[in-house]
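Entry:
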Amino acid sequence: MPRRKFPGPYRLAQLSAPFALVPMISVKKTMDPADTVLREIEEMGRRSFIPSIGPVKGRILAEVVREHKPRKILEVGALYGYSAILIAKNSPAKAEITSVEKNPEHARITEQNIERAKLEDQIKIIKGDAMEILPKLPGPFDLVFLDAEKTQYLDYLKAVEDKLHQGSVVVADNVGVFQDQMQNYLHYVRNTGRYRSRTVETLLEFSETTKDAMEISEKRY
């Protein structure tokens, strides 16, 4: 299945909700800034497909984060910051997230969304080619989320593998629809004995019919 290309720049949809007046009572509902940004990106994805993990896969990722409680997190592929914001919301207080994004426009929008989500103290965006940046990053990392160029998943992992410890978790997106492009990665995490790996079947982001999957791999040694 070929990678989809999307025109830019993107503009987040401005959402509005009907306001009902209640006699003699002033009601003001406020949403967490991070939740507001997440809902806006989800709405954009529903209107016009974007390769962001979306709410269905997001629940899977959030569950992994809550279970393992990572404090140092690496993301490869930010797009608009949805997954980084989601990870931050479900991580322990003061968890640090480093997100690497190659596309300058995507990185710019991600930075804006992170600032609007009030998470700029937790999430750092690094612009550039992951294969040049990853070897230079200080570890260790408790969790790695891969959602960039599918043919390079194994390269990304090996670039940071010496910065992972026993129990570190690697989550890889799109291992269903793009499995043919990452056979070397899937063989490595499933069959070499270095990882305890499982596949979670789900749907492609913002689709009700296309099947996809995420690979969740815990480092054994």
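Confidence is low (pLDDT under 50) at residues 1-28.
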